[in-house]
Amino acid sequence: MSLEDYLLPGVGTSINALPKISLHDHLDGGLRPQTIIELADTVGLALPATDARTLGSWFSTQADSGTLVDYLRTFEVTCGVMQTREGLVRVAREFVEDLAADGVIYGEIRWAPEQHLTRGLTLDQTVEAVQEGIEAGIALVAGTGSRIRVGQLITAMRHAERSLEIAELAVRHRSNGVVGFDIAGAELGFPAHHHRDAFDFLAKAFLPVTVHAGEADGLESIRGALYDGRALRLGHGVRLAEDIVIGREDAENTYVTLGPVAQWVRDREIALELSPSSNLQTGAIAAWGDDLLDHPFDLLYQLGFRVTVNTDNRLMSNTTLSKELALLSDAFGYDLDDLEVFQLNAAQAAFLPLDEREELADTIVAGFESA
To answer: Per the database record, which ranges form the Adenosine deaminase domain (predicted)?
Structure first.
């Protein structure tokens, strides 16, 4: 797949060529428009457009709604073509290829098996199909002389009542590509404690958890992710900034006070899976503004939080990980060292054994040194 090359502002270094880690990337949010058209034809699904370029524009326009609820409606189309084994295998394979083409060396693909059962597949069959696609993608990437590693994050929908069943599914497939668990979907009104049985089960099984929180809801949602979910990472977590007070001592000096939730997250280095473009589209940063410069990303970074950069849904946001890094660099003046920090943060937060995280970090350091 041909991707636009993004250069680090003022330096000219190719961001695409840098080794990167993707922690928050939804399988049903990263389809190629042409693939949607071809799969829709095989299952008889009507589309809002039948030209790849027009369809891609439709997704980004529809997703740019300002609310998470409206943003999520675009997934009715993508999920609609992911209801067969063949569809899941192809989408997962191409997903891996597209990550590798963007310089990603390790990616975690999150997706909700319960949303792919309308044509007769079982939960286990969906996981097996996605893993088949992932392994095929890895093999194709290896054939080009590159390497990528990919793990599945099995997601439960927070507005549904199948989270314990999905948690059991995730643990059942931990030796078949699954590296962790997530809950996603409509956040406001569906707190993490509704899924306490699932989180208790996962804790007993020692399967790591990330929870969507602090995107469409505020601090109470983040508290629930940490307390009820035992989250090791926060999916987005951008509204953690609501727990940070910036005051002015005098004309030249300011002070910063962290509330208890922010203090806990920073002190324990709980990673924030920030997705700048998506956060703008869903209104997650509306309290601070509607421009990337208003995003609390830089505040959180400067205060020492473990920030990571992610795409969330590449199709809906018309983005790549390289593009997100380029946008942040342009907005906040980040240089190569900053981008390296973001990738090392992601390596440290990956749901992998310690020695494998250290290997990832070594690969990142070597790649940035040679840039």
So the answer is: 19-365
